[in-house]
Amino acid sequence: MKTVLVTGGVGYIGSHTSVALIESGYDIVIVDDLSNTRLDLLEGIKKITGKDPKFYEGDLKDEKLVAKIFNENQIDAIIHFAASKAVGESVTEPLKYYKNNFLSLVNLLEQAVSASIPLVFSSSCTVYGTPDLLPVTEQTPVKPAQSPYGNTKQVGEEIIVDTIAANPNFKAISLRYFNPIGAHESSHIGELPLGVPNNLVPYLLQVAAGERECLSVFGDDYNTPDGTCIRDYIHVVDLAEAHVVAVKRMLDGLSKEPYEVFNLGTGQGNSVLELIKVFEEVNGLKLNYKIVDRRAGDVEQIYADTTFANEELGWKSRFELPDMLRSAWNWQKNLSKLG
Ligand code: UFG
């Protein structure tokens, strides 16, 4: 049985990937500092899988902790989710982002390289900035980052490329996520925003649950059919499965290049107003929302060309927007019970 180290394994995408790995027959070791999540999600992983994964609570900036994890476990592959991820916060606290996201990555890479352990890196479609052409392929040029957070993803990828150039036996895959939403069908795990949510779906869920008054739709004067921004929303369970495929690809020696990049989206773009309408329809609810000014830094529209991931990785998203928004609402209802 192969063992995968999942950093940030108690987080949103990390918890869903932990479940997918266990269900695919992997042993996992989780490390998480719990800075942006709660142990409830670890309990959720246990409830869904019936397994109790080995868990280290700690910070990957701590070199000694990282060395200890690799000394105490026979790690075959790494999936690195643990990172700070709020775009706005990264603008006001850039050094927190550079310290956290880079030191963790470098500490992990030192261990990974020394034992040639393959690594999957959580990247983002944010690296494409405002693309000149849609849909976005993996060859679409990377644009200058619009925030320190985005820069940590771009430079993170570059750090990996440079590391591979100097260590030909080391392999990595970067997965560039579009907009992950939704939750596991059990409602035992899902997104757990601490504080005021920045992202559309977590905010919308809190409005639907009566915890916030009104959803602000940021701008309806974009050059799109209904004037609101378009994104490629992808079910977090689909995303989780892509990580399992990426790990297997490297462990089975199927990588075509030592460093590969895949876009993870559905290929389908939806506007903010479309998403609200689907949410209302599938859940039988009316949502209180209003149109307000544009949010600074928002990209008008972006969605993925998924051909490369479909053909080369052999992975395709299965879920559609109604599934995503039904599961998200079920999770929110469960969350309100958890308190
Ligand atoms: N939106 C609203 N109201 C809200 C929140 C969001 O109208 O309260 C709109 C945004 O303007 C945007 C869309 O909903 O048009 C999606 O916004 P999110 O904040 O959910 O997601 P983003 O596309 O802005 O950001 C996501 C990830 C980032 C990543 C970025 C890359 O959260 O980590 O994609 O483009 F960097």
Return residue spans where pLDDT drops below 50 for at least 5 consecutive residues: none
Question: Which CATH C-level class of the largest domain is it?
Answer: Alpha Beta
First-last Cα distance: 37 Å
Q: State the CATH architecture of the largest domain.
A: 3-Layer(aba) Sandwich
3D shape: globular
The total number of structural domains is 2
Strand content: 15-25%
Structural class: alpha/beta
Number of helices: 11
Describe this structure in words.
- The chain has 11 helices and 13 strands.
- By secondary structure, it is α/β, with parallel strands linked by helices.
- It has 2 domains: 3-183 and 233-266 and 308-313, Rossmann fold (3-Layer(aba) Sandwich), CATH 3.40.50; 200-229 and 268-304 and 320-338, UDP-galactose 4-epimerase, domain 1.
- It has a 7-stranded parallel β-sheet with strand order 3-2-1-4-5-6-11, with helices on both faces. A two-stranded parallel ribbon has the order 7-10.
- Strand 2, helix 2 (40-49) and strand 3 form a beta-alpha-beta unit.
- Helix 1 crosses helix 8 (236-251) and helix 9 (272-283) crosses helix 11.
- The longest helix is centred in the first third of the chain and has 21 residues, at 94-114.
- It is globular, with a radius of gyration of 19 Å.
- The model has no long low-confidence stretch (mean pLDDT 97).
- The structure holds uridine-5'-diphosphate-4-deoxy-4-fluoro-alpha-D-galactose.
